[in-house]
Amino acid sequence: SGGALRISATCARWWKAMISGREALRRIVGPLHDAERVGDGSTCEVWRVDGRVYKVFRGSLHAMDHEVCIATHLQARLPQYCLGFESPVRRVCGYTVAPMPSIRAMDLFECFEGLRVSPGTVCRWIDGMSRALSALHAVGGLHNDVKPENIALCSDDRIRLLDFGFASVEGVASLGQRTLHGTPEYMHPRLRTRRHPYRYNRTTDCYALAKTVWFFVEPNVEAHLAVACFVRMTIGRLERDHGATVRYDWIARLRCANAD
Fold it and tell me: pTM (2 decimals)?
């Protein structure tokens, strides 16, 4: 019983020493006069402080190390297409605080919420998303979780990918093919069959991109009829062939479809 009491006392001291993600952020950033918690992941919280975005990782060092490694690599290699982290990445009381680049950005889900987006805007977003994904694939990368919340519209009017917690880059880091990761609504049907190994490839990324575009056009299909028809055909083609050859010239193909 003495041993149990000692363990209980240790656990009590540990629990008392635990702090919140907000407190960890305050200890590193300073006073949080204008702080808003804008998102949550399985291993992190996302905060916006005075217009600057921070990821506050809790617990899992492996998940944090993986994302920081991938995101830092891509931020350096593809700054015009990817939003990674800036130094320094610091730890306090079991949390890791990673600052996003100082460029102001808003994810497309947040941009779209409550707005009626014009067809021209949707086409600009499609063009930016397809260029960013093409650039990522060209350097041997896979995002593995493309969705509106993980695509940012930045203050320089560029579209950039973000949130690389499930991403992989050849020769840099990979989560492996034996784990299922991503967001079910944007996941290729073949991945949801739960057969091993899970084959993540460029097709699964492009399928998620097509589903992302569909998210923007579905609420007002009549106004985006040409885009909607094109995207539905693209989704159908990618669903039928898990190893389909992917193309990134979405806007050119859309114009051809309109001409027909």
Answer: 0.79
To 5 degrees, how large is the angle CA 93–CA 22–CA 103? 110
Q: Give, to the nearest 10 degrees, the angle between helix 225-240 and helix 250-259.
A: 120
SS (H, E, C) 105-155: EEEHHHHHCCCCCCHHHHHHHHHHHHHHHHHHHHCCEECCCCCHHHEEEEC
Nearest to 161 by CA among 74, 45, 221: 74
pLDDT band at 221 (very low <50, low <70, confident <90, very high): confident
pLDDT tens for each residue of 102-120:
777 777 887 777 566 777 8
Burial zone of 159 (CB within 10 Å; 0-12 exposed, 13-18 middle, 19+ buried): buried
Distance CA 53, CA 34 (A): 12
Do 126 and 227 form a contact (C-beta atoms < 8 A)? yes
State both tokens at 173. 């880091």
How does pLDDT run across 128-139, given as a tens digit for each residue?
999 999 999 999
Alpha helix positions (H), the chain: 2-17, 21-29, 61-77, 108-112, 119-138, 202-217, 225-240, 250-259
**CA–CA gap between residue 36 and residue 47 (Å, rounded):** 6
Cβ 166 vs Cβ 144: under 8 Å: yes
Determine the average pLDDT of the residues in 24-35: 86
The three-state secondary structure class of 79 is coil
- For tokens 């600057």, the residue is 52
* Residues of the chain above pLDDT 70, percent: 80
- Work out whether the CA dihedral 135, 139, 140, 145 comes out positive or negative: negative
Q: Comparing 256 with 155, which gets the higher pLDDT?
A: 155
